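Table S2 (continued). Query chain:
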Amino acid sequence: MHVVFTVSLQSVVALAKHYGIDPEKTLRKIAGALKSMGAKEVYDTCFSKDLSLIEIADEFVTRYKERGCMPMLASACPGWICYAEKTLGNFALPYISTTKSPQQIAGTVVKNFICDKKSLDPSKVYHCTIMPCYDKKLEASREDFTTGKGERSYCEVDCVITTGELAEFFETRGISIAGSTEGVVDDMTGLDEEERGAFFSTPGGSGGFVEHVFREAALSLFGEKVEGPLQMRILRNQDFREVTLEVNGENVLNFATVYGFRNIQNLVRKLKMGKSPYHFVEIMACPGGCVNGGGQLPPKEGQSAKELIAELETMYNASIHYRHPWENKKVERLYEEWLVTPRHRQHMLHTGYHARENTIGIQVNNW
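Corresponding output:
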C-alpha cells in the first residue's frame, strides 16, 4: 500500500505551540517522523487551500452577477454541513457553496492527478489527513467523496487523524516530534521543487474564505482593490464579525464570519425571516474557528481556552507568507494541464449537498 499524508496548517501550528517549535520546522519534523514509519509522501494543505479559495471566489462572483441565492454560505466546515443537511434540510441547500473543502480537494488531487502522473492505482493509495476537527472524519466518509464501484471504488481521503490523536500516536510509540529528524515536505503537484515546507497562503485560521473572497469580489465586481487587513467589526461577540465595502456611499458587499452554533442559529433565524444583510458568510461550528477545532490539543495547566485560541490565531497568521492563490505558479500550471475545462473543474473541485432525515440510524448510514 502506498501511504501518503496531508497535514493541515492548523494542526501544525497547534503542535508547534505545544512543543515550543517553529511551525515550519514542526511540519518538516512531522514529515520526517511519518516517513520514518513508511509514509511515501507528506504534503501540507497550502496548495489545496489555494484551489479552494480560487473556486469559491469564482463561484461567489458568478452567483452575485447572476443574482443567485444570497448569502453564499461557505461549506468547508463539516460540522456546519451536517447541521444544515439534517436540521435545516432543503431550506439551507441553495445558500451553500458547492466548492469542496481543502481536505477534499487534497484528496481529489492525490487520488486523481498524482496517481495519474505516477501511474498509481488510486485504490492502492492510502491517503490520510491530519486535521484539527473530528468532524473531518465524517466529511471523508461521505458517499459524495467516493469514486467507482466494488473493488475498484476508492475514497478521496481514507483516514482522518486529529491533531491530538497524532500527538498521542507519537507519544505512545516513544517518538518525540521535537527530537525528530526533519524530512522533506513533498510538492503535491510534482511540478517543481520550490517552496516546500513554507506556509504560502491567505491569513485566517479558519481558511481565510472571507479574507480572499471579499477582496476578489471587490475587485472583480466593483473595481475596488482592498489593501491592508480587513476592517472586521465585532457584533454580538468575537465569533460574529462583519466587513462591508462601500462604493459611492452605498454598502455593496457585506460579509461575515460566524463561528459557534449559537451564532449560527442566530444567522439562520435571520435567514428564515428574510432579514440577513449578508452576501457571503464564513461559517465554522467551533467557537474560535478551526484553530479551536475539537481535535486540537487542550490548553496546558494554568492556560485558559480563550488564551490558547488567541495565541494559536496569532501564531498561525504570523507563520503565513501572504500570497494570492494565482501567484502560485503550480496552481496556474495545474489549471493549464489538468483542470482544463469548466466542466472538469466542476467535477473535480465541487460537490453537492442533500437534505437528510435527522435520526440516529440515518446518521450512521449517511455519514
